[in-house]
Amino acid sequence: MVGVVVGFLIARGRARREERRPTGPTVAELLERLVRSSNNGVVVLNKFGDMVLHNPRAYELGLVKVNQADPRARKAAEQVVETDDPMEIDLSPLEARGRQPEAVLGEVRPLGDGFTVVEAVDHSEAIRLEAVRRDFVANVSHELKTPVGAIALLTEAVLDAAEDVEEVRRFGGKILRESTRLGQLVTELIALSRLQGAERLPDLNVVEVDAVVREALGRTTLSAESAEITITTDSASGLLIEGDRTLMVTALSNLLENAVAYSPAGSPVSISRRLVDGKVEIAVTDRGIGIAEDEQQRVFERFFRSDKARSRSTGGTGLGLAIVKHVAANHGGSVGLWSRPGTGSTFTLRIPAHIGAEPAAAAKQAPPASRPEKTPERTPRLVATGQESPDHGGNL
């Protein structure tokens, strides 16, 4: 009888302890989850340099290879155990292979009793951004220096030829062109800075695509007439987008100016618009010199010019397509490119349509007047997002 009572009491005590035990993971389990889910590479070493704990990110950053910690990390851990002071080390890959991290910085900290923790952080993106910033500053300095230097030399020439009215007029015209180019460069730099986040973008409103096309055509008429190029469009679409009208006009104007600048005299340039999968596509097609395939990924970079001589002669700044790319991105869209050297190019803006826009609007479009020929077979190429660019049904 006594044994039964004692057994009952022990069982009840165990039940009470089970009830008091908290449900869910323990602190140790949570810490292990934290280490394994960390975006930084983490390795814990003992006093012999052997790994006690590590996470998957340590493999990705190269901190752990073949189940061993990087020799640089082990050597640093030995010093930390001796000095009991944390230290930073460079754990960047010694050989560049594919798309692995390029710049990895590690910190080694003592844990006591001969144990150390090595934490590695990927700084590759920061290094790349710094390189881009340096290139941008160098390019801006060069681009600004050219017209400023030209204006200074031309001004000296005007002063020397003050008695010759014809020479003064000739040099004065050149000064005007260089100052205009300088002003355009500064304006585009400011616009690009705003689009990249230096200033808050205006609120997006409902914008008529047809109105954007009309205004962009108005801005480009003079340069097109000077180049003896006719710009044609398809019929009004009635399409609407969510955006900023001024920025959209700027982007489309840049595409038109680019098409005019890189097309031979007398060649056609056309604009088409349609609705595809909830996005409004505005395509600008030319029969210009085209862009080589190895340069198509770079045409949206700041100051990049596929034909430097032609760009200089037309006064291009090399910022137009960079602005187009950022305008599209800030509207939640993209810009695509198809091009073939000697045939021409098609740049396509894709902007989300205004909710409630009639899908049938795209079907009402008439074929562009400048595209009577059969569309050549081609493989579309979308530069900005890596997706396929749907055929716009237009000739190059």
TrEMBL record:
Principal location class: membrane
Region annotation (Disordered) ranges: 358-396
Cell membrane in keyword set: yes
One GO biological process term: cellular response to phosphate starvation
Coiled-coil regions, chain positions: none
Biased composition, class Basic and acidic residues, residue ranges: 371-380
Entry's localization field: Cell membrane
Key words of the record: ATP-binding, Cell membrane, Kinase, Membrane, Nucleotide-binding, Phosphoprotein, Transferase, Two-component regulatory system
InterPro entries tied to this protein: BphY/WalK/GraS-like, HATPase_C_sf, HATPase_dom, His_kinase_dom, HisK_dim/P_dom, HisK_dim/P_sf, Sig_transdc_His_kin-like_C
Record-level Gene Ontology MF annotations: ATP binding; phosphoprotein phosphatase activity; phosphorelay sensor kinase activity
Cellular component annotations (GO), alphabetically ordered: plasma membrane
EC number(s) from the headed UniProt entry: 2.7.13.3
Reactions performed catalytically: ATP + protein L-histidine = ADP + protein N-phospho-L-histidine
Chain ranges of the Histidine kinase domain: 139-355
Residue spans of biased composition, Low complexity class: 358-368
Protein name: Sensor-like histidine kinase SenX3
